[in-house]
Specification:
Blueprint: E1 4-10, E2 13-18, H1 21-34, H2 47-78, E3 82-89, E4 92-99, H3 104-131, H4 143-160, H5 169-178, H6 184-208, H7 211-236
Parallel strand pairs: 2-3
Antiparallel strand pairs: 1-2, 3-4
This protein binds zinc ion.
Protein name: Site-2 protease family protein
Keywords: Hydrolase, Membrane, Metal-binding, Metalloprotease, Protease, Transmembrane, Transmembrane helix, Zinc
Pfam family, one: Peptidase_M50
Length: about 240
């Protein structure tokens, strides 16, 4: 079921792609090919250029998810932890820890490094896209769109990951912050509760504004308990 292929090794960490990734890559390429400017390449006449740029954007999007995970991993290694592997899958990436770091301040640095790297990458990519100074997509000068889309999505991913709810990075930052004042299980419970309140508020807002917001809220709510159960299971054993 969870078959993964190893594609390489960076800073000593094996990089693997999940089989689900092979389904989602063409799907993303298709989405980019069907969206109009500036979020896609639908306006390009030449089919071959349209699909090549769409596929390139999809591949680079996952490469930037990899950079996000590598940022988490780099600081994990620096603070004495170790990473078993980084796996790219359907919904992004996961860096699987072998040896965890526990000091709250170090945890905050490790977790924040991901979204911060996404936002920095996003800003640089947007800057690059404006530097390429687009005349018009019809002129075949459409490489800037690749940078624009990647820049935009990376900034979105960075900010989205800062939402203070599990399974987002923001939830982990919140727990690390809380764990400076209480024990780890209590901090997890509290962070889960705050995440749930956040998800409910988002769902209510989504009901009146955007259906996507509602779906994201449901996803966050559904994942909230999982982290709590995992932590409780692990810590009641001792
Ligand atoms: Zn992250």
């Amino acid at each position: 079921m969870n078959k993964a292929y190893r594609i390489g090794k960076i800073i000593g960490i094996p990089i693997k792609i999940d089989i689900s990734f092979l389904i989602v890559l063409p799907l993303f390429a298709w989405i980019f090919s069907s969206q109009t400017e500036p979020f896609g390449f639908a306006g390009i006449q030449s089919e071959i250029i349209k699909y090549t740029l769409s596929l390139l954007t999809a591949i680079l999007l996952f490469a930037s998810v990899l950079v996000h995970e590598l940022a988490h991993s780099y600081f994990t290694l620096r603070f004495g932890g170790s990473i078993k592997e980084i796996r790219l899958h359907l919904l992004g990436g996961v860096a699987a820890m072998k040896k965890e770091v526990h000091e709250p301040l170090k945890v905050i640095t490790i977790v924040a490094a991901g979204p911060v790297s996404s936002i920095i990458m996003g800003v640089l990519l947007l800057f690059l896209s404006f530097k390429l100074n687009p005349v018009s997509i019809i002129d075949g000068n459409s490489l800037f769109l690749v940078f624009f889309i990647l820049g935009y999505v990376n900034i979105f991913l960075g900010i989205f990951n800062l939402i203070p709810a599990f399974p987002m990075d923001g939830g982990r930052i919140l727990r690390a912050f809380l764990s400076t004042r209480m024990d780890y299980v209590k901090a997890t419970e509290k962070a889960v509760l705050i995440g749930k309140i956040f998800a409910v508020l988002m769902a209510i807002l989504g009901l009146f504004t955007d259906i996507w917001l509602l779906l994201i809220a449901l996803y966050i709510y559904g994942n909230a308990n999982r982290e709590e159960q995992m932590v409780k299971m692990r810590y009641t054993r001792y």
